[in-house]
Design goal:
- This protein has 290 residues and is an alpha+beta fold.
- The protein folds into 2 domains: 2-67, SH3 type barrels; 77-282, Fumarylacetoacetase-like, C-terminal domain (Fumarylacetoacetate hydrolase, domain 2, Alpha-Beta Complex).
- The protein contains 8 helices and 19 strands.
- The chain has helices at residues 25-28, 36-41, 44-53, 85-91, 163-168, 173-176, 191-194, 223-233; strands at residues 2-8, 11-18, 21-24, 59-61, 66-67, 77-81, 100-103, 109-110, 116-118, 125-126, 129-135, 151-158, 161-162, 182-189, 201-206, 209-215, 241-243, 265-270, 274-282.
- Strands 1, 2, 3, 4, 5, 6, 7, 8, 11, 12, 14 and 17 form a 12-stranded mixed sheet that branches.
- Strand 15 and strand 16 (209-215) form a beta hairpin.
- The chain is globular, with a radius of gyration of 18 Å.
- It starts with a strand and ends in an 8-residue tail after the last strand.
Length: 290
Amino acid sequence: MKLATFTHGGVTRIGVAAGDTIIDLAAEAPELPREMAAFLAAGPAALERARKAAQGAHRIELAKVKLEAPVMHPPEFLAIGLNYADHIEESKMERPKFPLFFNKQSSCVTGPHDPIHLPRVSSALDYEGELGFVIGRRCRHVPRDRAHEVIAGYLVVNDVSVRDWQFKAQTMTLGKSFDTHGPIGPWIVTPDEVGDPHALDLKTWVNGELRQHSNTKHLVFDCYAQVETLSTVCTLMPGTIVSTGTPAGVAFAMKPPKWLVAGDVVKIEIERVGAIENRVIAEPANTDAI
């Protein structure tokens, strides 16, 4: 299944994408939660009800809805650095002996086709095409060989990075957490449709120019190892997003760097998962202020 969050007729709810339509779960299965994290927390029974509802008649053309971030307010948004050998090489860093995790603040989350803001305070704006996965149930101390049991599905992530803020701070969190710098989507694809998450082709284009092309088989620490490590430290909640790292081809490693500028369009596509596409715009002047 492809589990989506969408807005239609001014109302946001969840559905199942199928072909060029989306099945409205609010209409087809009104007893189900209408927010993704709550839906996932409802467990296997809710997923099974959604599968049955996906055969129903309450369908809306995809072209007539706005796809939102599949999980609009994740309880956590975690990511890992230096997790592809070629990206480690281009970054001129040592291969980590232990996963290099950091937080992206959940306020950075935005939809699969929403704009990315070029910050007022920096021009060092970069993209990172990544496979993400979503935790499907509350869990702790998950061994690697059972990690697949707690993953609800997979999505595409752009780990947008403000490099000067990333490198000057004591941790990477500030440079990874600007508003709009967490595009995700276009939906959550359940594991039965994805198959092996460690055999997926990944591509990133900027204005039609292919910048990144790799495969998740090259992950240093794979998805299941990441679940094992993170769940050793903290309880993972339904709706938590984990972004699994980016391959070579990022802007800061180019000579000179090819930073994103207003008007650029970044498209990231992952085999059997889907694609997101976001345009860069100048940070609006009317953002909230004291």
